[in-house]
Amino acid sequence: MTTADATQTRSVLSDPGVLVPGPGYEVSGTVERYRDTFNRTLRDELDRDADVFIMGEDISGGFDRDTNEPLDAWGGPFAATKGLVQDFGPDRIRDAPISEAGFVGAAVGAALTGLRPVVDLMYFDFVTVAYDQLLSNAAKSRYMFGGQTKVPLTLFARSGGGTGHAAQHSESFYSMLAHIPGLKVVVPSDPYTVRGLLASAIRDDDPVFLVNDKKLINMEGFAPDESFAFPLGKGRYLKHGDDVTLIGMSYTSVVCKQAADMLAEEGIEAEVVDMLSLSPFDEEIIVESVMKTNRVVIVDEDTPRASMASEFAAIVADKAFDYLDAPVKRVTGPHTPVPYNKGLETAFMPQPDDVVSTVRAMLDGE
Q1: Which of 121, 170, 280, 350 is the most buried (most CB within 10 A)?
Q2: What CATH number should be reported for the domain holding residue 131?
Q3: Active-site amino acid positions
Q4: Is the predicted pLDDT of residue 13 greater than 50, yes or no?
Q5: What's the CA gap between 55 and 118, in Å, rounded?
Q6: What is the model's pTM?
Q7: In this structure, is residue 230 part of a structural domain?
């Protein structure tokens, strides 16, 4: 990792809307996989606060019946909690039965009594099994008790297609969660942002759902050595440009950056905005960018109806309409379940080529 890379990352940490580095912003860090940064951050937060504990399916290896020694844990199907039970024990790394509604409800109760539970829901699609607990209890308790209680609950799960997990394990419907008042939703896009957003989520006094796209889990990137909290509700610039704004979230921010690099080869300078938080979200960075570029393409892997892409488009229409030189365009998944066939699955997901062709048509006035 070069000094320039470290400086750039540190500048985003100090001001999420700033990309260009300034003096005095150097920070030490490592290049590692997203999943390893996630695990390291969980470990840091468990060390930091004794009230933090984790529960979920298959997250702990349990204990040997004869020796009572901790068994090696695989950390669930994505190794998010691998090795944690050995250091923190089964009271803080708790295996749960296959009942998402049951253990999310237990986590809400634990949060209401002063603990800070972190819940691994495995696949994002399983949110629907626990939806009543999220909607009726986690998100509404603080309001219904008139602010006399807190619900410091963090949940995380894996979303997105592209990994051959079929229709029931590949959804990206984070808009369903963002629709719930009282529930915060964050969507990291690399190791740096998952380090900061996961820490912020666990330390927050409201329920926060962190969405991990499966395509990010084995991607490498820079992550600071020291723990830090990235502010919830803020976006960031991944690239500056004057010709068109590309808005992404989670893995589609990676897609937008790839598309921007392809467009740059044609002399088109795209600005890339990485939203990072979906509830609350950073309206200012959207409006600021569109006022500068006068064109916007929003990229979202979710299906198009009532999606985050639709919500961002509505903000542009409401607050930056007079600055538009072309209609707002969305590049999303089609209104279908995620296919299992590899070719169809790839066609389902927004690709950099789809974004590039949309921008070309926009600039050509089509």
Answers
A1: 170
A2: 3.40.50.970
A3: 100, 169
A4: no
A5: 6
A6: 0.90
A7: no
Cα four-point dihedral sign 72, 218, 193, 29: positive
Return the structure tokens found at 112: 């209401």
Model confidence pLDDT, tens digit, residues 321-337? 999 999 999 999 999 98
Decide the pairing of beta strands 329-332 and 52-56. unpaired
Instruction: Output the six-digit token pair for 161.
Output: 């297609």
- Tell me the pLDDT band of 64, cut-offs 50, 70 and 90: low
Q: What pLDDT was estimated at residue 63? A: 62
Summarised one tens digit per residue, pLDDT across range 235-271 is 999 999 999 999 999 999 999 999 999 999 999 999 9
Question: What's the rounded Cα separation, in Å, for the pair 279 and 133?
Answer: 18
Which position has the higher pLDDT, 3 or 118? 118
- Tell me the DSSP string of 156-208: EEEE-SSSS--GGG----HHHHHTSTT-EEE---SHHHHHHHHHHHHH-SS-E
Counting Cα atoms < 13 Å in the Cβ hemisphere of 37 gives: 32
* Domain membership flag for residue 164: yes
Least Cα distance to 297 among 211, 363, 213 occurs for 363
Give the Cα separation of 324 and 39 in Å (integer). Answer: 43
pLDDT at 326: 97
DSSP 118: E
What is the pLDDT at residue 69? 66
Average pLDDT over residues 169-196: 93
- Single-letter residue type at 287: V
- For 271, phi then psi, to 5°, come to -95, 135
Same domain for 178 and 266, yes or no, is no
Are residues 177 and 279 in contact, defined by beta-carbon separation less than 8 angstroms?
yes
Query: Is the separation of the CB atoms in 183 and 134 below 8 Å?
Result: yes
What is the extent of the structural domain holding 260? Answer: 236-364
Number of domains in the chain: 2
The C-alpha atoms of residue 73 and residue 82 are separated, in whole angstroms, by 5
Alpha-carbon span 57 to 71, nearest angstrom = 16
